Amino acid sequence: MDEPRYRRILLKLSGEALMGTTSFGISPEVMFTLAKEIANVHALGVEIGIVIGGGNIFRGVAGAAKGLDRARADYMGMLATVINALALQDALEFHKVPARVLSALEIRAVAEPYIRARAIRHLEKGRAVIFAAGTGNPFFTTDTAAALRALEIKAEILFKATKVDGVYTADPIKDPTAQKFDFLTYDEVLERGLKVMDATAISLAKEYNLPVLVFSMQQPGNILKAICGQQVGTLVGGKQS
What Rg do the C-alpha atoms of the chain give, in angstroms? Predict the structure, then answer.
């Protein structure tokens, strides 16, 4: 295996991806496999921050659409991310990866409060840091939280692991003629309205020139390949190198 190209990364995981073939909750098999993939990267000495969604348990937008107050629904979604973060912490520690959960909502019984300097110190000590509860504010997605935390910890790249192997012209599941992009600029993503991350997250990445790599977490070894600079998924950046 090649030497890692990046020394500190932010990995964004969707909550829905944790469901596997189930319709709700966490698949132990998926979580176990994911933790093993992260452990392989950690073994290379890469510092890893992780932002995890909560859509497998509760989505604030969906709750608001059914009549819940939007802010309260978003707080419920943040709590769902804490559940996922604790499950991932447990799976990582099973694979001998020291991990800490830092929550933007104060829940001291189960997670440390998010403090930027503390997060960086954990990373420097070789611990995986799982950022829970999004930004701690309603109306902001975990995509935006991922971009924000990546910048705060000075990650070299933001990895977004999804169910598909990159960004396409259309939904490849619904449209077999959809074509995959190997590279996109931030402006192309915004102008085309491509569903890479939400516009706030992409705009933040653009402003600070934070590269975003979108790839499938369902293909074994993809995270490791991406870390080592192999062609995986779709890269979003300011210009193609």
Answer: 17
**Domain spans of the chain?**
8-237
Which percentage of the chain shows pLDDT scores above 90? 76
179 CB-side CA count, 13 A: 4
Among residues 179, 155, 15, the alpha carbon closest in space to that of 83 is found at: 15
Residue 11 carries which side chain, given as an amino acid letter? L
Q: Which residues of the chain have pLDDT under 50?
A: none
- Span 11-21, pLDDT tens digits: 999 988 888 88
What CATH number does the domain located at 8-237 have?
3.40.1160.10
Burial class (CB in 10 A: 0-12, 13-18, 19+), 184: buried
Can you give the pLDDT at residue 240?
A: 66
- Tokens read off for 74: 């978003």
Tell me the two tokens of residue 126: 């070789």
* Interior angle at CA 197, CA 12 and CA 105, nearest 5: 55
67-85 pLDDT tens trace: 999 999 999 999 999 999 9
DSSP string for residues in 170-218: S-TTT-TT--EESEEEHHHHHHHT-SSS-HHHHHHHHHTT--EEEEESS
